[in-house]
Design brief:
Layout lengths: L2 H14 L5 H14 L2 H4 L4 E7 L18 H8 L2 E3 L2 E2 L5 H10 L19 E2 L7 H6 L4 E5 L19 E4 L6 H4 L10 E3 L2 E4 L4 H18 L5 E6 L20 H23 L6 E7 L22 H4 L3 E4 L9 E3 L3 E2 L3 H8 L16 H4 L29 H4 L4 H6 L1 E4 L5 E6 L2 E4 L5 E4 L13 H21 L4 E2 L14 H5 L1 E12 L2 E10 L6 E7 L13 H8 L4 E5 L11 H15 L1 H4 L1 E11 L1 H11 L21 E5 L8 H8 L5 H7 L7 H7 L1 H4 L7 E6 L9 H9 L4 E6 L10 H19 L1
Helix pairs in contact: 1-2, 8-9, 18-20
Keywords: Calcium, Hydrolase, Membrane, Metal-binding, Transmembrane, Transmembrane helix
Enzyme class: hydrolase
Protein name: Arylsulfatase
């Protein structure tokens, strides 16, 4: 008989006989291995893990969605095993990914709280053995293609966590993260440390990731390879290519799902085309939930970030018929993201190292149909079956008789997006722990709508929760922590020590115009008493964009040097053209003088600093003291708006120059000028004269020090302005930051040089 036919027949028989005892199973397995040629035995399987971002439980055709068509993923489920009770490691991005890649509850490895933003100093500790490192150490080519979100300092990056190749976004694209990249042109798409595209376009990512994944597969056709493909979609902001726009009955979200389905199909087509589909396992799962059901039959409730089922129970499908994974099966066994670590290692013939304590269980017997449940470790039914026994097991007398060790290992412990233990599930039972104990029977009530009274089960699950808390208290490991000093070659960061040294008062209203209010944020060093000089930090944005948060780091860094530093909002040109912005700057100065006692300010020593459009306003503030047309009605008219020192950065000081005349007349380039000043220089010469700092400069004006980037336009050197100041014997100067562009505040080395320069100048003029 043909060996391959014999092997297939014998495996089919074993799948159908789930009651065969372990001895017979082991004997048959050994016999099969004797019949298989050694060359085939040594062939390691390829692994493709597709992780989708923020896909809800019901959001695929095979999970009940009627608003979208997902034929390729549905076919994957028909040819594989679909899980009905699968849990992500957490209801939010970073902890979920940490759990998947380490096989540990995120809490065990110190990564359970919220997400890693671009200013995060933590990540997966280098002592942890990620799934990628495990596979790489055992001869696999490894790649991460997609969204990382697991730390951004060098030691946390994908290629230092076991991946040979990386392509994708290290960050999210939502507004709270994009803000970190505004000065750099947006979030970059990276390939192995090099920027490929900036800013990344959400509409292109699903296809680009898939293109890169297929290329990696083609380059490693001889295998084995481990491909981790964590998509940016379906996270907001959504992006859909033109081909799929309007293709679903569910708006942009449905369109993005259908594009995802198409590209999952491209992966399968490539595996088949390359004739390696029979030696590849493909996993499809979501990193956390999205929202509740939409029909009476879709009972689950809850959104992302919550520990209701809708926040953390997600779609999951495993496919690999050529490697013995069962086909066309649904499993209601409670499994979770941590289980993939020892399971995939078993399929690869890799034993998890003995010194690794993880939380995942080897579910390979379940995937192969050898058991309908995850076998107890004592049965030794798979290569990594004994891994759970490495976890601490020392229950106190109060709980010892309530549950067995294997029951404890099979429980799932829900943690909220802030990292706290929230609930525990065992079999069909789910117990919420806070603010009071609430028990639900998920088999009959997946919507968690009816409380169940069962004292025995409540006590059992509460005991599991207490034992788990004790285990984590004793055995949790720290997250990786980057060195506290700023990365001089990277994005600007302020140390926790600096931030902790400051008092702050935010959203202080300093001016009113009818119903319109303007706010400032005020920072002051905690350790210094008495009156301090004040510095008004005026953000840029071409007079039309930006907000006071853009100069928040500048204000905090200066405050730490011994000033009261404030950032201000002002009316942008889209709301009110010139001279509204300078009216607001003057109102801010008057407010500080009016409230000098309250904020510990020396009213005789107030300076200003700003970049770009903020630099122009700083220079104008310095030179227009007493110009009635520029004072405005922002309040506190009895106080002076003059300042005693100014640091204009990247500033335009000569608005009546030939350069300004030419730029203001150019259709695209001069649009901001025309919006701010309501026309070109030729159309509004008097307005440009009034807005030009050089026009107002006289001998009574304060010292000014200019800072600009070396690659910025030469007009920012303010040569005529500084020459006039020299004629008036007013102290002035220029610092050019080497290699820096116009927006230099975002890079640490340039930022530090700017702060040092400004501080030296203000020390000499205000203190």
């Amino acid at each position: 008989m043909n060996v391959e036919i014999l092997n297939e027949a014998m495996y089919d028989q074993m799948r159908e006989q789930n009651t065969v005892n372990n001895f017979v199973m082991s004997y048959l397995t050994a016999l099969i291995l004797l019949l298989i040629p050694a060359s085939l035995q040594a062939r390691k399987p390829n692994i493709v893990f597709i992780l989708v971002d923020d896909q809800g439980y019901y959001d695929l055709g095979c999970y009940g969605a009627t608003e979208v068509a997902t034929p390729r993923i549905d076919a994957m489920a028909q040819e594989g095993i679909r899980f009905t009770d699968y849990y992500a490691a957490a209801p939010i991005c970073s902890p979920s990914r940490a759990g998947l890649l380490t096989g540990c509850y995120p809490r065990r490895i110190g990564n359970e709280i919220w997400v890693h933003r671009a200013d995060s100093t933590s990540g997966i500790h280098t002592d942890e053995l990620t799934l990628a490192e495990l596979f790489k150490d055992n001869g696999y080519a490894t790649a991460c293609i997609g969204k990382w979100h697991l730390g951004f300092h060098e030691q946390f990056l994908p290629r230092n966590q076991g991946f040979d190749h990386y392509f994708g976004l290290l960050h999210n694209l939502d507004p709270v993260e994009v803000v970190y990249f505004e000065d750099q042109g947006g979030v970059p798409l990276m390939r192995n440390g090099e920027i490929v595209i900036r800013p990344a376009d959400p509409a292109e990512l699903t296809k680009l990731y898939t293109d890169e994944a297929i290329q990696f597969i083609e380059e490693n056709i001889d295998g084995p390879f481990f491909l981790y493909l964590p998509h940016t979609m379906l996270h907001n902001p959504l992006g859909v290519s033109e081909e799929f726009q309007g293709s679903s009955k569910w708006g942009e979200y449905g369109d993005a799902i259908q594009e995802m389905d198409h590209n999952v199909g491209r992966i399968f087509d490539s595996l088949k085309r390359l004739n390696i589909d029979d030696n590849t396992i493909v996993i499809y799962a979501s990193d956390n939930g999205r929202g509740p059901g939409r029909t009476p039959d879709q009972k689950i409730r809850g959104h992302k970030l919550s520990t209701y089922e809708g926040g953390i129970r997600v779609p999951a499908i495993a496919w690999g018929p050529g490697l013995g994974l069962i086909a066309g099966q649904n499993s209601s066994e409670v499994v979770n993201a941590m289980d993939w670590y020892p399971t995939l290692a078993t399929f690869a013939g890799i034993k998890v190292p003995e010194n690794r304590v993880i939380d995942g269980r080897d579910i390979s017997p379940l995937l192969k149909g050898e058991s309908r449940v995850v076998p107890p470790p004592g049965q030794k039914a798979s290569l990594n079956a004994l891994v759970p026994l490495r976890r601490r097991w020392n229950p106190s007398g109060e709980w010892k008789s309530l549950f067995q060790r294997n029951e404890y290992h099979n429980a799932f412990f829900y943690h909220g997006s802030q990292g706290a233990l929230a609930a525990v599930r065992w079999r069909n039972w789910k117990l919420y722990l806070n603010p009071s104990l609430e028990l639900y029977d998920l088999a009959n009530d997946p919507g968690e709508s009816e409380l169940v009274r069962n004292g025995e089960i409540i006590r059992k699950l509460r005991g599991m929760a207490i034992l788990f808390q004790e285990e984590m208290r004793l055995d949790a490991r720290p997250a990786g922590e980057a060195a506290p000093q700023p990365r001089v070659d990277g994005r600007t960061e302020l140390s926790h020590a600096l931030l902790d040294s400051l008092d702050q008062k935010l959203d202080v209203t300093y001016a009113r115009y009818g119903n319109r209010t303007l706010e400032m944020d005020i920072y002051r060093p905690k350790s210094i008493w008495g009156q301090l000089p004040a510095i008004v930090c005026i953000h840029g944005g071409g007079w039309a964009n930006g907000n006071r948060a853009n100069h928040g780091n500048v204000a905090r860094a200066l405050a730490a040097r011994g000033y009261v530093a404030v950032t201000i909002s002002y009316r942008l040109s889209g709301e009110a053209p010139f001279p509204a912005a300078i009216h607001d700057c003057k109102a801010a100065v008057r407010f500080l003088r009016a409230h000098a006692r309250e904020y510990g300010i020396d009213p005789e020593n107030i300076g200003a600093l700003g970049l770009s459009a903020g630099g122009h306003l700083t220079a104008l503030l310095a030179t227009s003291g007493g110009v009635a047309e520029l004072e405005g009605q922002g309040g506190n008219p009895e106080f002076s708006s003059t300042i005693q020192a100014a640091v204009p950065m990247g500033a335009q000081t000569e608005l009546q120059s030939q350069r300004t005349r030419e730029i203001s007349a150019i259709e695209d380039r001069g649009q901001i000028w025309r919006q701010f000043l309501e026309g070109s220089l030729d159309e509004k010469p008097e307005t440009y004269r009034l807005a030009s700092p050089l026009n107002h400069l006289d001998k009574n004006d304060p010292p000014c020090w200019f800072i600009t980037g070396e690659t910025d336009d030469p007009s920012t050197h303010a040569e005529n302005f500084r020459g006039r100041m020299e004629e008036f014997s007013i102290p002035s100067g220029l610092s050019v930051i080497k290699n820096a562009p116009h927006p230099f505040l975002g890079k640490q080395v340039w930022f530090d040089e700017m702060v040092d320069t400004a501080d030296n100048f203000f020390q000499n003029t205000l203190k």
